[in-house]
Amino acid sequence: MLKSKFNFELVFIFLLCLHTALILSIDLFPFADVPSHLAEGVIFKHYGSNTNLFNKYYTIHYLFYPNTFHLLFFSLPIFPNVEIANKVLHLLTAVGLPILVFFILKELRANKWFAIVSFILIYGYNLTFGFTGNAVANDIVLLILLLWLRTINRNTNHAIYMVIISILLIIVYFLHAMVALFSMLMMASFLFYKYRNSSIKLILNSLSSLPLISLILYWWFFLQKQAETSTQYNKQESTFAFLKSYYQYSFLQTYTKRVSFLIADNFQLFDGKLGKTVAFTLSCVIFAPFIIFIYDYFKKNITITHFRFLNESAIYLILFFAVNCICFFLLPAKIPGQEPLYERFSTMLLLSIILMGSKLPILYRVSFSYVIITLAFIHLILWAQYFFQFNQENKYFEQILPQDNTKILSYMNYDPAYRGRMVYDHFQNYFIVKKQGISTSKVIDYRFGMVRRKNSGGLPHQGHMYYRDSPRELLLKSDYILVRGIIPPRDQRLLDSMNTFVNVRNIYNWHLLKRK
Length: 516
Description:
By secondary structure, the protein is α/β, with parallel strands linked by helices. It contains 20 helices and nine strands. The protein has helices at residues 8-24, 34-46, 54-57, 69-74, 82-108, 114-117, 125-129, 132-153, 158-175, 177-194, 199-206, 210-228, 239-250, 272-299, 312-330, 346-357, 366-393, 430-435, 472-477, 489-498, and strands at 58-60, 408-413, 417-418, 421-422, 438-439, 451-453, 480-484, 501-507, 510-515. The strands form three sheets. A five-stranded mixed β-sheet has the order 5-2-7-9-8. Strands 1-6 form a two-stranded antiparallel ribbon. Strands 3-4 form a two-stranded antiparallel sheet.
């Protein structure tokens, strides 16, 4: 055990409490896709109500669909509204990660101080991109890993644990389909190794994945094709044709970008090189044990017998790491109608390295605990400032929204970034969230989604103005236009020539245009 004058339990609980207070203090999350998920939740929860016109413009596909967990969670009657439910879900996801890492380390009899290291991944790539289901699913994967380790480390009822794992695999499916596929690959590697000498046991234990496999096949070959008919995706090429071309011509060109896993979880703290430098510095603590071990091995005659990695549990850590490497380094950057893909595994890849590093003998060093604690608190302070500034800049945002929720709102966004990340892409969805209004939304045109457009409603397709998409359709079919930033000359000339909108409200960088 690492010796330090700091009490681990005190530091760990104190950090959990501080992160809890921080998350609960946030009004608007600067996470790109969160407004879309909130809008989905409000439409699902209040669909058919006489307080809105949702059933005129949207349809819902959720039965047996993946990525629908948040809809059910947000609609629970214990939450007064979707935004509070979302805050609770983010809180559970964020603080749940280091707690799960702690219990995994305890099961491994590894160094518990590395649970402190995991705090620097709390606001990871998926959570801060707004891929909330993906982030929650990652926590469930850690829980599955913990249960699997318990099946081999204790005299427990193996069958009960496998039933629980089977149920958790189903939950992962409803959280995120891609993570469900990852979980299936992870469990397959575990089972093949453990039962490599017993085909009967391998087959019997593999039955735990059968419900998940059935759900994935049913979704992919039956449900998904029905939902795609109302989206823009059906104009694109098939997934298999795209992948063939991608791996033939584009795959190798992405490898210079795949080192991004070193910075993917914290680079958005600051724009540009400063953000990447801060993120890389925070990530260095994850790799430091391996560097120190290599140094000790060659300079101080530390032998392999000091390597506490050599037991059965360690094999599963290596397999966990290998599956993460396969997904991060071999998956494509995108498929038609869905991106990003491989980047979503950066957090889990770093977590697998943390778990392996926790078994290295260098962690007897007291100085290493000081570094861990220092970086954990620096990370907390930086993210607190990040959240605080964002909420200060947008504290009056709700006042820009129209009051009439029977009208259609569209979005012309010319200033999408906060500290270099496109977090303002979907802020028009807050008209749905705050007012139960009708808004254009990218979420109804994504390939994989639960809320679809109702063709008879005639909602225009939401484009990206900063990519020079034309706002003509939005201007023709909308009652209100939410504008962020300065309208460029091209679009201003179109707006002036149509002479159908007037500016009725301005708050900082936000503007509201109303049809005359």
